[in-house]
Amino acid sequence: MTGILGLVYIVLGAWLAASGGSVYYAPAGCLLLASAVMFLRRPSAGLLVYCVFLVATALWTYYDVGLDGWQWMPRLLVFGFLGLALAWVGAAGAVRRGVCATTAILSLLVLAAILGLGIRITHERTVRYQPVAAASATTDNDNDWIYYGRTPAGQRFSPARQITPANADELQPAWTYHTSDTLREGEDKAGREFNFETTPVKRGNRLYLCTPHRQVIALDATTGKEVWRFDPKTDTRANEYLACRGVALYETGDTGACHARVLSTTADARLFALDADTGKLCDSFGQGGYVSLKDKLGEVPPGFHFITSQPLVIKDRLLLSGWIYDNQSTGEPSGVVRAYDPRTGELAWAWDLGKSSPTAPLAPGETYTRGTPNAWGTYTADPALGLVYLPLGNATPDYYGGKRRPFDDAYSSSLVALDIETGQERWHFQTVHHDVWDYDLPIGPTLVDLPGAQGPVPALVQTTKLGQLFVLDRRTGKPIAGVEERHVPTDPHLEDEHLSPTQPYSTGFPSLTPPDLKESNAWGATPVDHLMCRLEFKRSRYQGQYTPPALGKSIAYPAFDGVVDWFGASVDPTRHLLIANTSYIPFVMETLTHDDALRQGLMKPWAGWGSGQPYPKPKEFAVGPQYGLPFVTVVNPWLSFLDAPCAAPPWGKLVAIDLVSRKIAWEEPVGTTRDMNVLGIHTNAPLPTGIYTMGGNIVTAGGVIFMGATADDYLRAFDVTSGKELWKGRLDAGGQATPITYIGEDGRQYVVIAAGGHGGLRTRSGDSVQAFALPRR
Question: Which residues contact 526 (CB under 8 A, 6 or more apart)?
Answer without folding.
Answer: 74, 78, 642
